[in-house]
């Protein structure tokens, strides 16, 4: 299992979204399924 934790700075999500895109590509290349879950904090 792999976990990516969403951490943004001043509303900039580019680093997080880039990691998600790389993980999606890796999963596709390795015939793996990517499941996404959202857990609000606060």
From TrEMBL:
Protein name, UniProt field: Uncharacterized protein
